[in-house]
């Protein structure tokens, strides 16, 4: 059943991965989705050359055009909008366009993330051995992206007295991401951002939540393990993974919940939401919440 037929949504950073999973599931629920990012079909966004090489990829997978087409194919309406979310003028133009074309905004999914651009293949290292380029990627092109989109979308939501902002993050009950201080700090900042925005938005009837998926089988993860979505079960190392659409189904459940304001300010794990709302991953599993291995 299409539960979000009248929903107008913006999903940032939706060329691939988590953003594409969210946009696709919103499309399956009937929503109109503005799919934003820098990668077009004819030209991938710059900055992904290192992670593509480490993942043995000849080209960066995904584009906003392909995601928008998938949204439409699933039953919604996908609209691709090229937008560099570090550029305030471009982000403002995006929300001006949404208001001009739709007259309102119901859902913002903040997912644009620069962390992949500094990925160097090192998963664990003490902070003094980590280059400061990770800060620039994860904060200046990550946390800032979420704040910038939120502050430009918020006046639209406040004026209409309803709506929801979802911030994608990672959270395991405040456990430390051992060996990756920059990532840990950035995700903690995003979680706190969602909490702080909820306090300002609550008097206006607008919600803000942080949603934490587990280990997702994104295009880069699959490529790094030399497999694809059809054959990932042949890789034992991927047994704990979930598809990006599992996160998308969590977002749809929240956006469809008339009592979502009761969750405003919270950080919510996808595995927990699956049990609360009764959805599964695309393979029919209820994947439990991802938990970090403690040393």
Please outline the major beta sheet.
7 strands, parallel
Based on DSSP secondary structure assignment, what is the total number of beta strands? Answer: 7
| Distance N to C terminus | 44 Å
Give the tally of structural domains: 1
Relative helix content: 40-55%
H/E series: EHEHHEHEHEHEHHEH
Number of helices: 9
Q: What is the class in the CATH system?
A: Alpha Beta
If classified by CATH, what would the architecture be? Answer: 3-Layer(aba) Sandwich
Instruction: Say what the CATH topology is.
Output: Rossmann fold
| CATH homologous superfamily (4th level) name | NAD(P)-binding Rossmann-like Domain
Shape: globular
Low-confidence stretches: none
Q: What integer is the average pLDDT?
A: 95
Helix-strand makeup class: alpha/beta
Indicate the radius of gyration in whole angstroms: 18 Å
Instruction: State the strand order across the main sheet.
Output: 3-2-1-4-5-6-7
Organism: Hydrogenophaga borbori
Pfam families: adh_short_C2
Protein name: SDR family oxidoreductase
InterPro entries: NAD(P)-bd_dom_sf, SDR_fam
Describe this structure in words.
- The chain has nine helices and seven strands; from the N terminus they run βαβααβαβαβαβααβα.
- The chain has one domain: Rossmann fold (3-Layer(aba) Sandwich), CATH 3.40.50.
- Helix 1 runs parallel beside helix 3 and helix 8 (244-256) packs across helix 9.
- It is 40% helix and 12% strand.
- It has helices at 17-28, 49-54, 64-73, 88-102, 133-160, 181-201, 219-224, 244-256, 270-277; strands spanning 8-11, 32-37, 77-82, 107-110, 164-168, 207-212, 267-269.
- It is α/β, with parallel strands linked by helices and 295 residues long.
- It has a seven-stranded parallel β-sheet, sandwiched between helices.
């Amino acid at each position: 059943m299409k539960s979000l037929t009248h929903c107008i949504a913006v999903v940032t950073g939706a060329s691939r991965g988590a953003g594409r999973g969210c946009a696709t599931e919103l499309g399956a629920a009937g929503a109109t989705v503005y799919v934003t990012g820098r990668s077009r079909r004819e030209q991938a966004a710059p900055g992904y050359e290192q992670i593509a090489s480490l993942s043995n990829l000849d080209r960066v997978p995904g584009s906003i055009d392909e995601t928008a087409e998938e949204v439409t194919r699933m039953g919604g309406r996908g609209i691709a909008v090229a937008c560099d979310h570090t550029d305030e003028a471009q982000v403002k133009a995006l929300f001006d366009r949404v208001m001009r074309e739709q007259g309102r905004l119901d859902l913002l999914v903040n997912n644009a993330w620069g962390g992949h651009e500094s990925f160097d293949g090192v998963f664990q290292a003490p902070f003094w051995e980590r280059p400061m380029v990770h800060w620039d990627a994860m904060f200046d092109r990550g946390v800032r992206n979420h704040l910038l989109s939120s502050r430009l979308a918020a006046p639209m939501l406040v004026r209409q007295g309803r709506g929801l902002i979802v911030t994608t993050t990672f959270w395991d009950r405040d456990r430390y991401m051992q060996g990756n201080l920059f990532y840990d700090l950035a995700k903690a900042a995003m979680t706190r951002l969602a909490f702080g925005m909820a306090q300002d938005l609550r008097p206006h009837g607008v919600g803000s939540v942080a949603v934490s998926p587990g280990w997702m089988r994104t295009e880069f993860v699959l490529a790094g393990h030399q497999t694809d979505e059809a054959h990932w079960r042949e890789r034992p190392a991927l047994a704990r993974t979930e598809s990006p659409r599992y996160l998308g189904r969590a977002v749809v459940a929240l956006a469809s919940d008339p009592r979502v304001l009761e969750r405003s300010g919270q950080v919510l794990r996808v595995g927990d939401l699956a049990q609360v709302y009764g959805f599964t991953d695309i393979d029919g599993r209820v994947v439990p919440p991802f938990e970090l291995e403690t040393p």
